Structures are given as structure tokens and as C-alpha cells.
Amino acid sequence: MVELTSEMIVEIHDTIIARYGGLPGALCVGTVDYLVARINEEPDTIKKAALALHLIALHPFNDGQKRTGFQVADNILRMDGLCISARKEDICDLLRKIAEYRCTIEGIELWLKKNVKVV
Known about the structure:
By secondary structure, the chain is mostly helical.
């Protein structure tokens, strides 16, 4: 498993903002560094993806954090030969629950286990 870096996450965020719009930039670069350290500590791929989605979706950037969190989680899974196979509506519902603080890391992990398949 490749370790994530703050630069990787910022690059993913910047690409998403450039492609789909929104305010660029991180609220605090130190927060992104902290998230990367926490994510890289987790050895289990599904748990790592759940942690990334949860932590990044909770506002380290000015805009686009849910999109960025989802993309980083998907990248983590793909590095291990997995991919998210949920419907767009189900993904949006999950992201909304995360943003509204109605979904824990454990809840995201369970959702991923139900919605991930081998590539």
C-alpha cells in the first residue's frame, strides 16, 4: 500500500475544484498533515478508506471536502484492487450523512464493506 502524502490529497482537491468548481485552498495545511498521518497509521484498506472519507469530508478545505474525501477513499481502495460499486444516489446519501455528522467512521466502514467489489 502506497502511503498518502499531504501533497497527494491537496492535488486531488485542486483537480476536483478546477474541474467542478468551488473555492480553492485548505483552511489549515496542518490539518491536512494531521489527517494524512492518521490515515497512514491504519493498515486495513477498508478502514483506511473509511477514515480518509470521514476525516477529509469534515472540512479541512474551503470547499469540495466531500468530493475530495470520496476520491481519496476510492483511490485507497483502487490501490488494493477494490472499487466502490454503489449507485450515485447512495453515495450522495452517505456523503450527506457524513457532512451532517450522522455517520461515524464505523458506519462508513460498514457501508464500504457492502458497496466495494474487487476490480
